[in-house]
Amino acid sequence: MAYNQGMYYGVHGKFTATPGNGPALLDILLRAAEGLRANPDCLLYLVSRDPADADAVWVSEVWTNAAAHQGSLDDEAARALIAEARPLIAGMSDRVELQTMGGKGL
Amino acid sequence: MAYNQGMYYGVHGKFTATPGNGPALLDILLRAAEGLRANPDCLLYLVSRDPADADAVWVSEVWTNAAAHQGSLDDEAARALIAEARPLIAGMSDRVELQTMGGKGL
């Protein structure tokens, strides 16, 4: 995408899978990211492994605004993925909500 | 950018400015991001405000590999910006190094 500057809604946080389920949770979240390609309010949805913890998956999101992010969770495909992911999730932590001001890659 | 999937080097963390200097530090980091536009190994460099702390600035980076990230810090323009930023930085925290596997926006 072109270089941009503005004020967007960012959210970054860590999911911890139940033991051994990090790769399965990672796969679900990558599918969630793919499903968001068609959503113009979702500017970024990155899924990362944590080299220090095989059961941890980090997600970094940037949206045009917080309401669009919240609304996306009600989408039918998103709800199906959330239902699939929930039994694999032991916890969530390190969540920060940010005002993303710009940079390279937005 | 097009949708991509692979394994990249991600780093995410918080800079805390000396009191009142959050906006000045944010400006320097946005200029750093602009300077990285020409670096093909830098896939993402986002600068965010923290709504909970006016002196905090978060940076989220994705690089093709860790060595490219490390090498970028030796660039002359980067060194000048680091020198400008250093007196404004009270601390760094919440740093995580990640293996970014894909998603939307890479």
Q: What percentage of amino acids of chain A are in beta strands?
A: over 45%
N/C terminus separation of chain A: 6 Å
Largest sheet of chain A: 4 strands, antiparallel
Shape of chain A: globular
Helix-strand pattern of chain A: EHEEHHE
Specify the number of helices of chain A.
Answer: 3
Low-confidence segments of chain A, given as residue ranges, are none
* Oligomeric state as shown: homodimer
Chain pair sharing the greatest interface: A-B, 38 and 37 residues
CATH level 1 name of chain A: Alpha Beta
Kindly name the structural category of chain A: alpha+beta
Number of strands of chain A: 4
CATH fold assignment of chain A: Alpha-Beta Plaits
| Mean pLDDT metric of chain A | 93
Rounded to an integer, what's the Rg of chain A over CA atoms?
14 Å
Question: How much helix is in the residues of chain A?
Answer: 25-40%
| Widest sheet: strand ordering of chain A | 2-3-1-4
Any idea how many domains of chain A?
A: 1
> What is the CATH architecture term of chain A?
2-Layer Sandwich
